[in-house]
Design a protein that fits this description.
Helix content is 15%, strand content 21%. With 66 residues, the chain is α+β, with helices and mostly antiparallel strands. Strand 2 (32-35) and strand 3 (38-41) form a beta hairpin. The radius of gyration is 10 Å and the shape is globular. The protein has one domain: 2-Layer Sandwich (Alpha-Beta Plaits), CATH 3.30.70. A two-stranded antiparallel sheet has the order 1-4. A two-stranded antiparallel sheet has the order 2-3. Residues 8-36, 37-66 form the 4Fe-4S ferredoxin-type domain.
Length: 66
Amino acid sequence: MDDPAGTPAPVAVTSSCTACGACLLTCPEHALRPQGGSLVVLGDTCTGCLECVEVCPADAIDVLAR
């Protein structure tokens, strides 16, 4: 899910997310936020470093084409 404010993020959290929080602890920009049992990526904050993708044990974060 992208940032509801409208800025597209370079990554998206999929429905495979288990809300384990690994990405929340890893993101150097704090660009992921819990929302409604899943996570939201703040597009205006995410730099696309992909650390969240690397650490996700459920492979629930997709890299989006730009």
